[in-house]
Amino acid sequence: MERLGIGPDVACARNTRLVYGRLTGHAGVCLGTLGPGALNLVTAVADAYLDRAPLVALTGQGDLERMHKESHQYIDLLRVMRPITKWNARVSAPEIIPEVVRKAFKVAESEKPGATHLELPEDVMAEQLDARVMIIGILPTLTDFDIAEHNLSANPRYKALNDTILNQRGEDIQIRIEGEETFETLANSIVFEAACTSMQLHLQVDPNDFALYWNTAQALSAPLLAVAANSPFLLGKYVHHETRIALFEQSIDTRTEELAQQGVRPRVWFGERWITSIFDLFEENVRYFPALLPVVEEEDPTMVLESGGAPIVASEADVVRAHELATEAGFHVSPTGSAGLAGALAIRGELRRNDRLVVVMSGVAR
To answer: DSSP readout, 214-276?
Structure first.
């Protein structure tokens, strides 16, 4: 979660969560180990208390049975935190965890905001509950505030991607998912896509076997999805058993409603046929979907080609080798550069040198 501060630099983590609370009005969370680790949070907790910034501090603690003893790294954290928190408690049994956590956040954010603190003894945290871990795709606790443009990562690349998709649409993104209930909204950013996060496992295969693996994965996707569906809720609505597919497809859709009705392909789809080579996918992408973020360099490759020169590439050896691999695979590179190969970032054109066809591209993945 964005609001949770954990990191090797305790001061940086605690101050980051403090600023989060000040800017958003939602409680940031700091997590510290027992003893000295917990004491490192005191400055941030006191600052939040004095500045009325919502903050929930979680600290470790030794076992309950050794709190009355002189024990290694045991410090009475409840007494330390009492003067600088609005509410301060020890989790003495696992059954009360949901209740005390809700209270900690409610107190931190309500009326005059400030800091709260929960102490987590080791033996209590190690106890077993009559419960099971739930593997969930879309967090049921997700709110409108979470899925908003101000939560977009600060990297300029994401801002550019967001603006490009919206500019191609020329209007806000309409999301409508019909299931047990109907979820419908207008989004002015692509941040809804972030709700579709999932764990991904990547399998590296021999290029000659890629088509077989791809086609097999496509064939198995439906039964695997039926077994693993785990995202029924979206912003309080009970929609599909697996909502991420529809949400992902619609949240970054560059088509207007009119283009969708005309049958223009969405950027997120399962494809149209079985493939015979990895190059089928590159060719399909370039044919149907214009690039969203072009590769930008100071050199104008078109002018260089027209003057008889060769645009800058990673190295001619890499380019020639990429073409040889494509030729061995039976792939023909068209004069317009209508496909990518060997992980090329962008194909710029072709030229002949010493009777060898050289594919000119901005870079080759090694």
So the answer is: HHHHHHHHHHHHHHH--B-EETTEE--SB-HHHHHHHHT----HHHHHTTPPPSS---SS--S
